[in-house]
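Researcher: Quick test of sequence recovery. Tokens follow.
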């Protein structure tokens, strides 16, 4: 084999290795990001359920839905900020 054929074979071999490594890292990345997204969605969903229960039990008036209570509380929030000096 001449030097150029050996060189070409080596370059092709390195390219195959590179493609395999990049493919492996891409699969790992997809798995990690997918797992994080599922966990994030679960945490947000759990928080929203707990939040809704708190609003329902502590702040909703009789016959008022959770959504109506949240809307009423959000509308009243600016008035409380002004009353307390506007700081959070």
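Model:
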């Amino acid at each position: 084999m001449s030097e150029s054929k050996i060189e070409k074979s080596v370059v092709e071999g390195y390219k195959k290795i590179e493609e395999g490594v990049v493919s492996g890292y891409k699969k790992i990345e997809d798995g990690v990001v997918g797992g994080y997204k599922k966990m994030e969605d679960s945490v947000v969903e759990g928080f929203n359920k707990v939040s809704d229960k708190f609003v329902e039990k502590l702040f909703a008036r009789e016959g008022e839905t959770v959504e109506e209570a949240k809307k009423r509380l959000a509308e009243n929030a600016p008035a409380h900020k002004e009353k307390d000096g506007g700081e959070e």
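The mean pLDDT is 91.
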